[in-house]
Design a protein that fits this description.
480 residues; 0% strand; disordered N terminus; disordered C terminus
Length: 480
């Protein structure tokens, strides 16, 4: 956001401390909590409903992969520029647009007559969700100018997201007992209430923020083509014509993206930031963490129903111990990071993930379900611990002016890791007769990926500061 201040604002600041909140702050906070809660529920709710969706549309594994990845890909790609859009049109307006898109797409998902419409609507859902996340934080910053009040509001925002993630699998199981379409229709009343509350908040100011159109289009094309290539390769083989074309499109789009960031006047991810050791390794670690966590959730959601014969509700309940504990790990990780430094919780969390994944990969199909449930816990707890500490580690090393861009890049990399995990692991378990062996292979790949990120974390020496420029020529005021 712009750092310029008018004389009037300086006089107000000199007269005393900022007000704790602005008019309409409580409705704005309630709207933000409901919106973010809904987004986080939706990120988890679909996994337990996948078998029911597959039966409803007579779809194979490729279709189910796209139901998950359509949302995740759009979320990842549009996160890169969502902060700039929020600044450009105003946080309140951006939140309303993002949540409105999400709610309308949810209605289309619930009423989808075929799988193609469902996947298309999931893409729009993901784009809306990408706009909601940064605009919700910007809106809290505006409506709570007092630092102490703002910290409490952001803490509530985090709790709302954690509760949403924990409730997602169980809510999915319950609603799927009625009809899988209900997992999307439930977003309508919640989103409508949030939008009504938002009308009582003041409009946000707009800023003259540049937008990197070339970079955004290239990022969408590169991520989408790569994921398409991996998913279709699982069904048709890596030598198929459409797979080779998709890989080529991904490579060309990635090159265009890098050129746009290197030579563009207003790059959304300036290359000096990406050249930072802290930034590049944080991106790699975040990618690996989501490969392990979301790859496991995708695989086990299918495994518990297709191999052990659990209902959607029982599957959701099986995820509950992991998701509930995960919601409490953020504050624990923050305290550990403040006492021991951020690097140790990152390493510990990754170790827990790798150990849990390896243990599950060693389980035979005859192992009791409760043992799988127990082994999910260290994966979820380790993931929450590592992500929280990783964000802290990154923000310690990146100048405040670059924090918004750095956070967007990190979260986009995490979402891309989850999308590619679903693409790869779905291909491994597509053959129902070899599901268990494919499951074990997928879990081993996930464990190996996270183990490699442990090595990367060891290389990340936080006592050697990166020389990251606070500003980049042509970047404009979009940094937060």
């Amino acid at each position: 956001m712009s750092t310029s201040a008018s004389p009037a604002s300086l006089q107000i600041g000199a007269a005393g401390p900022p007000p704790r909140s602005t008019p309409g702050s409580r409705p704005a906070l309630a709207a933000v909590l409901l919106g973010f809660f809904t987004i986080m529920v939706d990120a988890m709710i679909v996994n337990v409903a996948l078998p029911s969706i597959g039966r409803g549309f007579d779809s194979g594994m490729t279709g189910l992969q796209w139901v998950v990845d359509g949302y995740t890909l759009a979320f990842a790609a549009f996160l890169l520029s969502a902060g700039a859009v929020s600044d450009r049109i105003g946080a309140r307006q951006a939140f309303a647009v993002g949540l409105g898109l999400f709610v309308l797409a949810s209605a289309v998902c619930g009423a989808a007559p075929n799988l193609g419409v469902l996947v298309a609507a999931r893409l729009i859902q993901g784009a809306g969700a990408a706009l909601v996340v940064p605009s919700s934080l910007s809106l809290l910053r505006e409506t709570f100018p007092d630092p102490a009040a703002r910290a409490k509001a952001i803490a509530l925002w985090g709790v709302g997201g954690s509760v949403g993630a924990a409730a997602g699998p169980v809510a999915g199981g319950l609603l799927t007992l009625i009809d899988w379409r209900m997992i999307f229709f439930v977003n309508l009343p919640v989103g409508a209430v949030a939008l009504l509350l938002l009308k009582r908040a003041a409009r946000s100011p707009r800023q003259d923020v540049p937008f990197d159109w070339t970079g955004q289009v290239a990022a969408v094309a590169a991520m989408g083509a790569l994921t398409y290539a991996v998913i279709e390769a699982g069904a048709d083989g890596f030598g198929a014509g459409q797979v080779l074309v998709a890989f080529a499109v991904a490579v060309v789009s990635a090159v265009v993206y890098l050129l746009a960031q290197a030579r563009g006047r207003h790059p959304m991810t300036p290359l000096p930031l990406l050249r930072s050791r802290t930034m590049s390794l944080s991106v790699a670690i975040g990618f690996a963490l989501n490969v392990g966590f979301y790859g496991m959730i995708f695989l086990l959601g299918l495994y518990l129903q297709q191999v052990h014969g659990l209902s959607a509700l029982a599957t959701g309940v099986a995820f509950l111990p992991m998701t509930v504990l995960t919601s409490f790990m953020g504050p624990v990780a923050a305290r550990l990071a403040s006492r021991l430094g951020a690097r140790m919780p990152v390493i510990t969390g990754q170790g827990l993930i790798a150990a849990g994944l390896l243990a599950m990969a060693a389980l035979p199909a005859t192992a009791p379900v409760w043992l799988t449930v127990v082994l999910m816990v260290p994966v979820g707890a380790g993931g929450a611990m590592a992500v929280t500490a990783l964000v802290s580690l990154l923000l310690e090393q990146v100048p405040a002016e670059r924090a918004g861009v750095a956070s967007g890049v990190l979260n986009a990399a995490r979402q891309l890791g989850g999308a590619l995990a679903v693409a790869v692991f779905g291909a491994l378990v597509a053959d129902r007769t070899a599901f268990v062996s494919g499951l074990h292979t997928g879990l081993l790949i996930a464990a190996a990926t996270v183990a490699a990120s442990v090595v990367a974390t060891v290389l990340l020496r936080t006592h050697v500061p990166d020389r990251i420029p606070a500003t980049v020529p042509g970047a404009g005021p979009r940094e937060r």
